[in-house]
Design brief:
Strand content: under 5%
Number of helices: 4
Order of helices and strands: HHHH
Number of strands: 0
Distance between the termini: 53 Å
Largest sheet: none
Length: 81
């Protein structure tokens, strides 16, 4: 599986998690982001290895093309007059 295919698989699984349709092997809905990342990596054939949870969180954010907590618009653009 190429890197592009792996990234696509991670994106697909994380979309399922956000939609609330991702289920664990036991058939229960996945509620934890960390568990969703673990499932995504497993399905994509990637191993967590010696990388930290923070690394994988940022990897998923990069793959999904989103920011977890967008900044307050006033902080970015300055206060509105």
């Amino acid at each position: 599986m190429t890197q592009k295919e792996k990234a696509s698989k991670v994106r697909k699984v994380m979309r399922e998690f956000k939609a609330g349709t991702l289920k664990s092997s036991g058939g229960q809905k996945v509620k934890s982001r960390q568990q969703a990342i673990a499932i995504a990596l497993s399905e994509a054939g990637m191993s967590k290895g010696d990388k930290t949870d923070a690394y994988w969180d940022s990897y998923v954010v990069t793959i999904m093309g989103e920011e977890e907590d967008p900044e307050d618009p006033e902080e970015v653009n300055g206060p509105k007059d």
